[in-house]
Amino acid sequence: MNRKLIFGIIGIMSLCFLMGATVWAADTVNFGVCEIRSGAFKTNGDRTIWGIEAAVNEANDQGGLLGKQIKLVIEDNQGKGEIGVQKTKKLVMQDNCVVVIQGSSSGVGGAIGQAMPRLKTIYLDTNAEAMGITGENFNPYVFRTCLNAGMHVKALANYFGTKTKLRKVFLINQDYSWGYDVAKYYEMAIKQFSPDTQIVGKEFHPVFNKDFAPYVSKIAASGADYVISGNWGTDLTQLVVQGRKLGMEIPIGATFLDDDGVMGIAREAAEGCIQANMYILGIDSDKARAFEDTFHKYSDGKWPSFVIMEAYIGTKMFIEAVRKAGSFDTDKVIKAFEGMTWEGPIGPITMRTEDHQAQSPAVIAEYAPSTKYYDFPYLKPIMTIPASDISVSLEDSGWKPYKK
Amino acid sequence: MDALSIIPIQFLHGLVYGMLLFLVASGLTLIFGMMGVLNFAHGALYMLGAYFSYSILRWTGQFWLCMIVAPLLVGAIGILIERFLLRKVHIHGHAHELLLTFGLAYIIEEIVKWVWGNQPLHVEVPAMLSGSIQFLGITYPTYRLFILLISVAVFAVLFIILYKTRAGIIVTAAVSRSEMVNALGINVPLVFMLLFGVGGALAGLAGVIGGPYLITNPGMAGTIIIDLFVVVVVGGLGSLPGALLASFLIGELQSFGILFVPQMAIALEFLLMAVVLIVKPEGLLGEKA
């Protein structure tokens, strides 16, 4: 074939493509999602995306955002930081995404967060809770809309310290940064709510630990009257189920028991456990019911629990910030997001200006044999805690101002 | 409970976990230890056993039926893998077998996720196994004792077949002196295929038993496979009593490691392997090559 002809065809094709892209860009705006789409943690990635999708469906249904329909561009970070950064660059530079959303891994979140100043785009952390992301590694392009480790365990310390007489705690956590954050901040939090609480044991076990029996007998031997654990996934299920079967009847205070995947297996074994999060299904108020029902409507019949709920709230808050800014321009959205208050299902959530860490109230829930949400036992809320009572100061968060 | 009375309980925990490990590793002892096939898909076969069991239980409600049907199914898959895949690459040596079974492990994992989903599954064991019993002043889950019982039974049956029957003699001979046995008119490839099937069936049985305890989930193969190779290497290639001893030691090291040196517990198993490989490279009860 004639070389000129080939160049001509390529030229026309690229022109068509460019024009197509411009026409398209006129009425849509891209949100990037860099989540885990493969491997053992895929369930968390799925749930994060369900939350994001519901918020986007809702906004699009109500006329879009600044006159544009939101389109999600989803990439697989494979649970690895460096791949997350690669895919984030692609989302920003190739797909022109105005935001990159990620939540189901703190490791990936930290890596994406640190890549953002160069990309000059916002990283919205909807559910990764490691302190460092808005703490010592803070930069102005990162916004976290969920609780961080410190706030999450402070809600538990508040409950056990003020609502119960239990004063001997055993801390059992996974052997990596998240588990250490949970233990460290729980120790700090009990000093505030119940200084007479004794830490009778502190263990860190490998992630995906198989047999919990040796830990359970250590807990029993320690004389603990309750347990605190930041475990997630099978590590939480195993701790709860094996613990109960071995006769451990003391309460376990958990941060991820609202995962329907965990409760679907733990079931009756979770009786006596306590869970804290920024929202837990079943709050008895019009606002909370409206929150749940709206999500239900826009998510094809799912319920906003666990990271689904966090991703939903986070995406809604970002959309609100763009509306407030009246622009997709990164600097304008940052200005609008800082200090913004969004009306959450149990009260206002405020984005703290200095470290971009959302200040949210929290819910404490206990075991419920039956709920309308799932066909296995789940949880029911027993109290709410105002944002000010679980807030962790900038200093305690290890926050450092951003230096270019 | 004081610090002293915890020791027998910790011993029991270690024993049970060690025996569960033996149950999963017993099939690999045959396949890797005796036949010399580096079967990285053994963990995946174990996982298939757990998932088959889940489905059979859902359809029939009979856990005991799972213990028969699931191992047969996994054993059949093992036979197919040997006949149509491994036999073709066997002449190229270990590296090819390793790559093939490594790939198979991934494929099986993806198929499991595709068929059963990513969610961990809830497997209801019979009521008589799901409770706890009281003895020596402690509460102990019946299911853990059941694991112990099955593992000991599997060991006894395998031991008698391998070391005390004519079939066992043929198998051991076919493995170590295959040309000679072939010349005597025994179909060695058939023996290999059946041995692989038995190894697969044992993995399947381990899946049925282990699934409800370690939670049936798509990650269960990956988290156990390294432990299995450690058991076979430490015990001595092809030695069934060796695998039993190694599993027991690893279970106890883990259990007492958590009690006394928790930060080191996970490393003790590999420390044991390093020491064994330095002092007695053929494994605890392995024969010198």
Features:
heterodimer; A: 404 residues; alpha/beta; Rossmann fold; 2 domains; 7-stranded mixed sheet; 5-stranded parallel sheet; 15 strands; globular; B: 289 residues; mainly alpha; two-stranded antiparallel sheet; 12 helices
Write the layout of secondary structure elements.
The complex is a heterodimer of chains A (404) and B (289).
Chain A: H1 3-27, E1 28-35, H2 42-61, E2 69-76, H3 81-93, E3 99-102, H4 106-119, E4 122-125, E5 142-144, H5 149-163, E6 168-174, H6 177-193, E7 198-205, H7 213-222, E8 226-229, H8 234-245, E9 252-254, H9 260-266, E10 274-277, H10 286-298, H11 306-325, H12 330-337, E11 341-344, E12 347-351, E13 358-359, E14 362-368, E15 378-385, H13 387-390
Parallel strand pairs in A: 1-2, 1-3, 3-4, 4-5, 6-7, 6-8, 8-9, 9-10
Antiparallel strand pairs in A: 10-14, 11-12, 12-13, 14-15
Chain B: H1 6-34, H2 42-60, H3 63-89, H4 94-116, H5 127-130, E1 132-135, E2 138-141, H6 142-164, H7 166-176, H8 178-183, H9 188-214, H10 220-235, H11 240-260, H12 265-279
Antiparallel strand pairs in B: 1-2
Helix pairs in contact in B: 1-6, 1-9, 1-10, 1-11, 2-3, 2-4, 2-9, 2-10, 3-9, 6-7, 7-9, 10-11, 10-12, 11-12
